[in-house]
Amino acid sequence: THPPAGAWHRSEGTGLVIGATHRSLGSAIGALAISLFWNGIVSVFVLVALAGTVRNLGLPLPHWFPAPVMNDSPMGVGMTIFLWIFLTPFIVIGLVMIGAFLSCLAGRTEVRINNAEGVVFTGIGGLGYRRRFDASAVKEVRLDDKQWRDSDGDRRSKTCIVLETREGKLVKFGSTLTAERRKFVAGAVRKVLWG
């Protein structure tokens, strides 16, 4: 009945909604700094690839654009294609970093329960990831702490909420929430499902 700051439990026309925001100023600042550094470096190479693409299409380049010259000749089609393929994973990582920053500002995790139908939503605004589950088949709601060692041998852990159904299906979510918000969401979902 008393959710912590940034969490909620309310009744809507579509059923009950239990959720919490991902909002964290410290995490947002950290994600922004890393994102600006990464995307700043990648953007130089994207501009070169873009310049090569524009030049190979026969279009004029602005004078301030980086000149894609290799061995005193313009970058060819093959090298331009190779550069785009090579840059694709770096661009995707940069977009994920921007998504993490936006999630720290405006992201949320919600569980909607309407009769026997349940939906877990994690995202920003209307964009996000939805996982459906049968609310009447949930046999356990728990906090699960997964531990592992990274490549340097340091211990890492990640805590999430796990909904386990009688069929053995696991729905995991809430790892981006603060501990207090995660405990509230897990407890509220447990109370709604079993009274």
Structural notes for this entry:
The structure is a single chain. With 195 residues, this protein is an alpha+beta fold. It is built from 3 helices and 10 strands. Strands 1-2-5-6-7 form a 5-stranded antiparallel beta sheet. Strand 6 and strand 7 form a beta hairpin. Helix 1 runs antiparallel to helix 2. It is elongated, with a radius of gyration of 23 Å. It starts with 6 loop residues before the first strand and ends with a helix. The relative contact order is 0.15. The model has no long low-confidence stretch (mean pLDDT 88).
Describe the secondary-structure layout.
Elements: E1 7-12, E2 15-21, H1 25-56, E3 69-70, E4 73-74, H2 77-106, E5 107-114, E6 117-124, E7 127-134, E8 138-149, E9 155-165, E10 170-173, H3 179-194
Antiparallel strand pairs: 1-2, 2-5, 3-4, 5-6, 6-7, 8-9, 9-10
Helix pairs in contact: 1-2
Which features would summarize this protein structure in a list?
single chain; 195 residues; alpha+beta; five-stranded antiparallel sheet; three-stranded antiparallel sheet; 10 strands
